[in-house]
User: What shape does this take?
Amino acid sequence: MAKVRVGIIGCGMMGNCYAAVFPRDKDIEITSCCDPNPHKLKAFSEKYHIPHTYTDYRELIEKEELNLIGNATPDHLHSKVSDLAMQSGLAVFSEKPMTSNLIEARALSKTAEDKNLLTGVNFSKRSSAALIRAKELIENGSLGELRHIEGTYKQGWIVTEDYGSWKNPDKHSWTWRLSSAHQPLGVLGDLGSHLYDMAEYLAGPIAEISCRMNRFDKGMEKVGEFTLDGWDSFYSSINFTCGASGFLSATRWATGEKDSLTLTVHGSTGSLRINYAEKNRLNLFLVQKGKWENFDLQKPQNQYQIFLNCLKNATPYKPDYVDGCRNQLLLEESLRSHMENRTVSIS
Ligand SMILES: NC(=O)c1ccc[n+]([C@@H]2O[C@H](COP(=O)([O-])OP(=O)(O)OC[C@H]3O[C@@H](n4cnc5c(N)ncnc54)[C@H](O)[C@@H]3O)[C@@H](O)[C@H]2O)c1
Assistant: This one.
């Protein structure tokens, strides 16, 4: 079988993740990579032994003979890069949030359908044995009727500089996350996209959202080319069509927290907790047993392996662009809820 030829666009943190994980599959070959930052590009191509380098993604897509594009660019570029790749007949594995807005997401989803192309959105938090087991327990009725779901995602890098100093964009690649031109939905798209994906994965469709968002003074308005006008925190109260209610929240101002994600589900006959610091451990309470118990589960295949297998075997992948579109709708309606100061219904 000929190898699957991959081009990686964006050589930052997630690009490094793709380049480290994809080649573990012997049928995958990363032929090319692209980043406008020549120093990053050189270091990346040397580290992963990638033969062809480009500073313009359009040139990479035009010149390389590829099967798949790994789109690890900042949020505002997701749509442009993925669209061009699909127009050239390539499968796409893209970072979340799928796009900057719902119009772009729907257009991409339609192109994927029209051209019958495999797509994936990297909702990487699905690679958790505890989350997968939680879904099974909910579906087989072990928790009874779902009543309450809580998801909280806390990072503190604005204060504690856990990922370097965002005040120095030359050294710190995360500064763009603070600019609405580069990350239009701010923390909602960055961390909230995961929370909404996990919430619906476990409990089914969300029917109503009431969201509040906030941004805080950073002592300056601009850093280099980046205007510091992005959203820093959000919290949403939600109602699911199954009747349960819940609460999702995320912030980058959680001083002392580097990357803390927790999820709790309460049902009429049981509850569960997942802490992503130990993402393959499920903490379960069944009324019948009357106590909390820990279950250490076997690490599952990650989303990258699952996607590559689907590409090789021509089988469908989830979460794809249809799921990405749904996620984008929830993000956009959350923003609408905040801007219009009202609860919104989700169709
Ligand atoms: N799925 C996850 O769990 C997860 C985790 C972190 C980040 N992300 C997402 O991944 C994406 C990238 O985030 P990151 O943390 O890797 O950021 P990063 O800043 O580390 O990397 C982004 C890279 O894209 C490059 N870039 C900028 N413009 C480009 C262009 N025109 N063409 C090609 N490359 C370009 C930058 O130079 C940088 O090297 C974001 O959308 C982010 O939301 C997803």
